[in-house]
Design brief:
The complex is a heterodimer of chains A (116) and B (107).
Chain A (H helix, E strand, L loop, with lengths): L4 E3 L2 E4 L5 E6 L6 E8 L3 E9 L2 E4 L8 E7 L2 E6 L8 E8 L10 E2 L3 E5 L1
Parallel strand pairs in A: 2-11
Antiparallel strand pairs in A: 1-3, 3-8, 4-5, 4-9, 5-6, 7-8, 9-10, 9-11
Chain B lengths: L3 E3 L2 E5 L4 E7 L6 E7 L5 E8 L4 E4 L2 E6 L4 E6 L8 E7 L4 E2 L3 E6 L1
Parallel strand pairs in B: 2-11
Antiparallel strand pairs in B: 1-3, 3-8, 4-5, 4-9, 6-7, 7-8, 9-10, 9-11
Classes of the chains: A mainly beta (116), B mainly beta (107).
């Protein structure tokens, strides 16, 4: 398996534009997580899915953020409209059913978002 | 406040031992984890410890767990420049990561 695949690796956009981040989890993993990493806040859980269903989105900062998982192999995180304070590295991670297990989470390489 | 806490920075000389500490609040996790993040990369699982253990050794890595005090540590023996990275403590029962400790290894 190629691991968790995220795209794009880097995104630079202007304030007010829509941004879509993409993630392909590891095949067979039932859980998918979106995290945001900033210097100020460290690693924050935004939302997670179980079997494509959003379970907890309490970490999503505002209504400008939305996430979907239309099938087991694809998820998106959308920001509309984007603002400079959204600049961060966004990570997707996946895990098998027993997430509190020896395997932990598998992370993608992240998308570095810069909003100017 | 944070449920998983770590100091932010650690600097050591090459060849010395590094000890990274972590405290957590949720005791329901079956496992506790250490992840490593190299510059420009995602987090990679470095090691883990079962919550009923108090020590685990894996080559240069030693994980110590004090469940009573909810304290976890990672010791890296004979630290090398390639060990320079950010190290995250995690208890995934609550899906929480510490803020990460940036380890700098000086030659």
């Amino acid at each position: 398996d190629a691991g968790v695949i995220q795209s794009p690796r880097h995104e630079v956009t202007e304030m007010g534009q829509e941004v879509t981040l993409r993630c392909k989890p590891i095949s067979g993993h039932d859980y998918l997580f979106w995290y945001r990493q900033t210097m100020m806040r460290g690693l924050e859980l935004l939302i997670y899915f179980n079997n494509n269903v959003p379970i907890d989105d309490s970490g999503m900062p505002e209504d400008r953020f939305s996430a979907k998982m239309p099938n087991a192999s694809f998820s998106t995180l959308k920001i509309q409209p984007s603002e400079p304070r959204d600049s961060a590295v966004y990570f997707c991670a996946s895990s098998p059913s027993e997430w509190d297990s020896r395997g932990g989470y598998t992370f993608g390489s992240g998308t570095r978002l810069t909003v100017v | 406040g944070e449920d998983v806490e770590q100091s932010l920075f650690l600097s050591v000389r090459e060849g010395d031992s590094s000890v990274i500490n972590c405290t957590y609040t949720d005791s329901s996790s079956t496992y506790l984890y250490w992840y490593k993040q190299e510059p420009g990369a995602g987090l990679q699982l470095l090691t883990y410890i079962f919550s009923n253990m108090d020590m685990k050794q894996d080559q240069r890595l030693t994980v110590l767990l004090n469940k009573k005090d909810k304290h976890l540590s990672l010791r890296i023996a004979d630290t090398q420049t390639g060990d320079s990275a950010i190290y995250f403590c995690a208890e995934l029962g609550d899906m929480r990561f510490g803020a990460g400790t940036r380890l700098t290894v000086k030659p």
